[in-house]
Amino acid sequence: MSTTVVSTRTMYHQLLSPSRRKKHHKECIPVNVPPFGLSRSCTSTLLQQISDSIHCCQQLLPSLLIQHILYSASAEQISSIVDSEFPNVAATSSNQFYLDSKLHIKELGDAARILSAANSIQIKITSRLKNHDALPSDDVALVSLGNLKTLYKCIIKKKLELENSQWTAFDEHPEQTEAKLRALMAQACSDIFQGKFSHVKYSNFRTLGVGRWLDDEVVNYFVEKWCSNAGTTLGLNSFFASRHLFKPGTCIPKDGYLTEDDQARVKAWCCKAVERLRLKNWDSVFIPINENRLHWYSAHINFRLKRINIYDSLRDRCIENRERPPLLRKNASLMLMLLWLTETLSSIRGEQIELQDKLGSGWVCDPHFKPNSYDCGVHMLWHLRHILEFHRIALGRKCHPSHLKFTDDMVGKRLRLAQEMFEDAGLV
């Protein structure tokens, strides 16, 4: 018997133990709810939702029998059913592979959205069962919910496997990927983007196209979305650095210590960002930097690892800085500003850090560079992906899964970003 069945039945018997005082719903009447049988009016709607979920899953997974959900089924059995309906296929550059993968990923996504309600249904139905004596249909309902939650996990896992395979194909076949990106951009028009995003307009979205310089609003969209979802990194928008770290109208970092007014403005800005991203326990800060609308790079403050890094993809800077001591490298002056910023933000986190006069305090400050001068905007967003996934930049074999690797041609990442915005806009 599966672990799911044992745990749900154990929970059910504890729920209905004789020692617990019941508060009956006097208004409830007996109701027959197929396929569960005799139930009550207070739970009939929830049982119907379970039945509808099962029916939708059977449309997607024809080999999934009603018995697999209503009665005992192991996680291995449910996983094998999903695998049989959506077998893994080796990544290729063919258009058929792309179309099949796209369809299967969408179907799995639709199923996941339906099944995601199982947990909330379980909470509601468990609460209502406390008011009644046990019926056989109650046991069946709880077992079904446990199996639906297992099915949800299997579907999410399979969706990720198919996405990884597709993303790998994007990186391995850049010419075909470029054609797909051009085709996607040709589908987009101003009308369909109208009102879909609060700040991103059609003209902003177009900068994800082949060979385009990435727009501020696109960068800010992904920084806010990814950091909000992750919940661990305070992602500041691209306007923060120009207003607080650099001299007005230039890409030259401010000099020396900043005033109390500067500190107050930074705190106010960052507190609003924490609130907007709905962060509770954040341990790092990501700062995208737009240099004269010609080049993107980023800075990262990691409070947990005690590191301050500047990530730059410009090849000439990388070669130039290898031969210089750290304090004479390009962006070393920006590092001094980041030391001050770290001290300022530490107070928001409820701690006190002093760095500018105590560089031996265990913190590592590294204004380093990665030699890749292509697609600096997309490259910079991939800095953030790595930070959220690995808490650092992972290169070569250290980067797993492989679809997160930096590539010489970032067109595959461009296509993924464009597809993500299409999906978020409900256009897929």
UniProtKB/TrEMBL annotation:
Pfam families: Peptidase_C48
Keywords for this protein: Hydrolase, Protease
Protease in keyword set: yes
Chain ranges of the Ubiquitin-like protease family profile domain: 198-387
GO biological-process terms attached to the record: proteolysis
Superkingdom in the source lineage: Eukaryota
Gene Ontology molecular function, alphabetical: cysteine-type peptidase activity; ubiquitin-like protein peptidase activity
Similarity comment: Belongs to the peptidase C48 family.
Name assigned to this protein: Ubiquitin-like protease family profile domain-containing protein
Species: Collybiopsis confluens
